[in-house]
Amino acid sequence: MTFLAPLLLLGVATVAIPVFLHLLRRRERRTFVFPALRYLKRTTREHARVVRLRQLLLLALRISAVVVAALAAARLVLPIGGSDDPPAGLAFVIDNGLTSAAVVGQDRVLDSLVSRSLQVLDRAGPRDRIWVVPAGAPWEAAVPLAPAAAADAVRGLTSTHVTADLAEAVGRAGSLLATANETIREVVVLSDLRPESVGSVSGGVSRSGPTVRIAPRPSVLEANRGIAEIQVSGGLTPRAGDLAELQIRVTGSDPGEVEVRGYVGDDLIGSSMVGPGGTASILLPRLESGWVRGRVELEPDDLRADDVAYFAFQAIAPPTVGVSGTPPPFLDEALGVLEDAGRIVRTDAADAAVLIVVPPATGPLRAPGIVLIPASDPALLPVLNRSLGELVPGWSLRAEPEGDATELRVSGGEIADLLPGQPTVRSRYAIERPAGAEEVTTELLTLSDDSPWIVETESGGRRVVLLSSPLGVEASDLPTSASMLPLLEALTGRLADGEPTRSGLAGDPITAPRPATAVRLPDGTLRTLDGTVAFAETGTTGVYEFVGPEGETISLTAVNPLASAPGTNLDASEAASRLSSVWEQVEVAEPWPSAVLTDRRGREVAGPLLILLFVILLSESWLAAAQGRNARGGGKEESAPRPPSTPLSDPSTSG
């Protein structure tokens, strides 16, 4: 039992007032009973007992009213069900990602998580602040809410196609609670605890902050199949007029085969049968130049979201490519492979749509698209800078001082998803550009120190791509890796007015092409970019269309989910062990939901006490009024006719 305003308990002392008044009214005059009145003695005695009982009851009601009023004023807190004191800040991390849409029994997994959240919210008090952090929608901001509003927000959650990152979501929740003034601060995690959502155990430094409590896992999906990967022609964009092929890899636990259907637009182009772990192939028809979008589908199961995958690309005619200068061996071999595959057409430098320049180059640089590759010999750098300055005034490459070279890896950029791995870069030149050049520059690949490695710019109606490293084994792993062909094919296709095939995972930001001013979501909604470099709202799978100021299509990006393997969900204790590597205090909330808010002192009962005080005062008023009526002769006990009264006198004075 706790009082939030204990000084007001001094009001209990006022119980002396009704006690004093009661004792004062008990003073009685001395009376004498005459023989003529003795027959009324028994009736009078019984009436006196009733009156005395009423007076005692009135005294008890008045004392109770004073005590109850004092307890309400002192804000009594009792250790009973529910919680009001001390106020709490609660952050609910709810996994509304891909597998939350799975149907288990008659309900979705998300329905179970919402139900468990509401059980805790029923125990929250009006002074608590609640944050709802949807782990499946990391782009959504969380704001402090009252318990009733938080319950509405939880009920309004919908499943996304994102594989939630619970460690990241817990970190966000902890940051939100760090600004809270509430005495109790807890993060409550509700998830079906997929291994890919929880992450792996690592030896990182744990963050300190509020206690993280993991709710017991609900029933989970036991069987599932989905599309793990979809490729178009092995990763190379189909050329207009050529036949191409879709390769679809299926994962899952269902041992039987399932039909896979392919669509271009809304037209069915073919189907194939495949079992889990297998790959199906569907031929694409000969395509005309332009953007192509489509999808592949499996027969739907209890988790529908990973039964559909999307693809998008731009089909273009093979570009004409020429070389000015002496290309290094790996570059010459890669161009030969692309030519044999029909991806490019080799031609003279004067007739090429895309010209690759390697110092010492000769002849004018007049092609609409130009790729500048520095030589391995730093002595040839001035030759390249002279050509670069003619194409893009103010640009140059600068050699790094000896001993400053650091081995780096490719970490980002607009076409980073084209590389099968992360090539190591051992040697590079620094790219110097004038102020304001960022407005017309696109960083195609960047390194782990955030420096640009391959950039694209425009000048004088030409598009220029500049590499900051030579294409040699001493400079990077690129010439000897599988990244060489996709990268070279993407650069030549890009400069020939073609965009490389772009794809991503649900929940991962998409790098917006520089000319794009808006993006059209798969449901048709148009969102303005307003200079946004990375578009983060990718919770729904489908094709995202980036459009220019005139409404023209700049590029398409296919976004797909990470296929979920069934039957591998973690239990709450194992998930707590994994999260403890990144968060200091993680506990399993069992029994649920009483394991949440265990530091509460109880519930403040001022409201019920005021209701009780009203009832007491009402009863006291009724009883006092009844006694007053009896005293005036209106009671049943005095309703019989009285005998004639006889004057009373003191026997001691009678003669």
Question: How would you describe what is shown here?
Answer:
The chain is an alpha/beta fold and 655 residues long. A nine-stranded mixed beta sheet has the order 17-16-18-19-26-25-24-21-22, sandwiched between helices. The chain has a five-stranded parallel beta sheet with strand order 6-3-7-8-34, sandwiched between helices. The protein has a five-stranded mixed beta sheet with strand order 27-33-32-29-30, with no helix packed on it. A hairpin with a 2-residue loop joins strand 25 and strand 26 (462-467). The two termini are 70 Å apart.
Write the layout of secondary structure elements.
Blueprint: E1 2-3, H1 16-25, H2 41-73, E2 76-78, E3 88-94, E4 103-104, E5 107-108, H3 109-121, E6 129-134, H4 147-155, H5 166-178, E7 184-190, H6 195-198, E8 211-214, E9 225-232, E10 244-252, E11 258-264, E12 267-274, E13 279-284, E14 290-298, E15 308-315, E16 320-325, H7 329-340, E17 345-346, E18 354-358, E19 369-372, H8 381-391, E20 396-399, E21 408-412, E22 424-425, E23 429-432, E24 441-447, E25 452-459, E26 462-467, H9 484-495, E27 503-505, E28 510-511, E29 518-520, E30 526-528, E31 534-535, E32 542-547, E33 553-560, H10 572-579, E34 586-588, E35 603-604, H11 606-631
Parallel strand pairs: 3-6, 3-7, 7-8, 8-34, 16-17, 16-18, 18-19, 19-26, 27-33
Antiparallel strand pairs: 1-2, 2-35, 4-5, 9-10, 10-13, 11-12, 11-14, 14-15, 20-23, 21-22, 21-24, 24-25, 25-26, 28-31, 29-30, 29-32, 32-33
